[in-house]
Design a protein that fits this description.
Blueprint lengths: L1 E7 L9 H17 L4 E5 L10 H14 L2 H7 L34 E8 L2 E3 L6 E2 L10 E7 L5 E4 L12 E5 L2 H7 L4 E5 L6 H15 L1 E5 L7 H4 L4 H6 L3 E3 L12 H20 L7
Parallel strand pairs: 1-2, 1-10, 2-8, 9-10, 9-11
Antiparallel strand pairs: 3-4, 3-6, 4-5, 6-7
């Protein structure tokens, strides 16, 4: 079960400054969380202008920042020019992003992201540090399960897959989209393109296929070029490893559709058709 979304390294080429780029990533991150995306994969295309190479790292960094609970951000992300406009990023408010609470609010079985602040003590957003004798990372967040609350709070290191509700997304990178599609052969692989058949004409077939795979890898093109145009030398290989080419906005009223618009529309349709099959329960399940 799961939903992976692949976006190109050219995702920010239509943005002129850091503020605009940050706002765009904020829109992308919100859409990913709203539609319960588990993995956001940024794939290389070789088409990022040399003057914008740093934007790929910026895209990944800002998405990772968004998925980090607010109470851990200053500990994990040092002050950096790339985060100058981070205050413009909208909060995700997923279940993994609780508001700061007191130890009395914690219950057995609850999950929390945390980080080691000093030897034997971790910050899990509970107003005070919680004892945890086993060392964990001081730079990256660790997922904890509250094993018990009496006579004291006891934490266990947990795996993200253990959580039964939607827990936000992780960010990955790949240098080869075709290889990633090949690796995902047990998922239903969907590429969104304005030159493809309409989603309505393929919906029943998609639902049937996803009913068997229980997972989807959804691939999007960039602001100026679709997937085939971004990877023209790999068109034949793409065709071998894609199950559906789909147009979710047929007869569009504008010359182009922005990436963030395409993601909202396309993931919304997928959520309506197969969301219950591929994604864990969300905030108001």
């Amino acid at each position: 079960m799961g939903l992976e979304v692949a976006i190109p390294d050219t995702s920010l080429v239509d943005c002129s400054d850091l503020r605009q780029k940050t706002v765009k990533v904020g829109s992308l991150g919100r859409a990913m969380a709203v539609f319960r995306v588990d993995v956001v994969t940024v794939y290389e295309t070789g088409r990022v202008p040399s003057s914008q190479k740093k934007d790929v790292n910026l895209l990944v960094r800002l998405l990772e920042y968004m998925d980090t609970p607010q109470y851990l951000r200053k500990k994990i992300f040092p002050i950096s020019p790339s985060l100058k406009y981070a205050g413009l990023l909208p909060p995700l408010r997923t279940l993994s992003h609780p508001l700061i609470s007191t130890p009395e609010d914690l219950t057995e079985g609850m999950y929390r992201w945390g980080i080691q602040v000093r030897d034997g003590q971790v910050d899990i957003g509970a107003e005070q540090l919680i004892a945890h004798p086993e060392p964990v990372s001081e730079r990256e967040s660790t997922l904890f399960r509250i094993a018990s609350t009496k006579p004291r709070i006891r934490l266990e290191v947990a795996n993200r897959d253990e959580v039964q509700e939607y827990w936000g997304f992780r960010v990955a990178r790949t240098s080869n989209l075709v290889e990633r599609l090949r690796e995902a052969s047990e998922s239903t692989r969907v590429v969104f393109s304005r030159k493809a058949p309409s989603y309505a004409s393929l919906e029943e077939e998609i639902k049937s296929t996803v009913g068997n795979t229980k997972s989807v890898l959804a691939v999007f093109g960039g602001p100026k070029r679709g997937v085939s145009e971004l990877l023209p030398d790999e068109k034949n290989e793409l065709k071998k490893h894609v199950d559906f080419w789909v147009n979710t906005i047929p007869d569009q009223g504008t010359e182009t559709v922005r990436l963030e618009e395409a993601i909202l529309v396309s993931l919304g349709l997928l959520n309506k058709s197969v969301g219950a099959v591929i994604a864990k329960p969300g905030f108001h399940s």
